[in-house]
Amino acid sequence: MSRSEARVTTDRPQRYAKQLASHLGRRSETSWDEETGQGRLVFQDGTGTLTATDGALLLAVEAEPEFLDRLEDVVGRHLVRFGTKDELVVEWRRDTGEPGTSQRGTGESA
Q1: CATH number of the domain to which 81 belongs
Q2: Are 102 and 89 in contact (CB under 8 A)?
Q3: Is 51 within a domain?
Q4: Is 110 inside any structural domain?
Q5: Please, what's the b/e burial string for 68-81 (b: 16 or more CB within 10 A of its CB; e: otherwise)?
């Protein structure tokens, strides 16, 4: 298994994490704990975690290397869509030290 992580700067990490877990829960198994500020995502090809901290949402996905790009894209793309007006940026970093994919909000209404 390979791992990829991203730190997304936002003043609303709890809100975005809860929204992301809820939305992705329509097709995958997800959980979100409001008290701990942590969530879990279970996809067919891997898993993910959400951790809300002061000023940032920490994202992580784990999968076989051939599925990492797709999981990064699914999680990151949905998050930046929810945070369009906040112009969120998701830049993944692999456990190998190499950069992963990037997703950016445009600030335009969707």
Answers
A1: 3.30.310.50
A2: yes
A3: yes
A4: no
A5: beebbbbbbebbbe
Q: Does 85 map to a domain?
A: yes
Is the Cβ–Cβ distance between 103 and 4 less than 8 Å? no
DSSP letter string, 80-95:
HHHTGGGT-EEEEEET
CA 10 to chain centre: 13
Cβ count within 10 A of residue 8? 22
- Locus of tokens 């090809």: 45
Rounded to the nearest angstrom, the gap between the alpha carbon of residue 66 and the centroid of all alpha carbons in its chain is 18
pLDDT of res. 106: 67
Rounded to two decimals, the pTM is: 0.92
Could you say which residues of the chain have pLDDT below 50?
Answer: 108-110
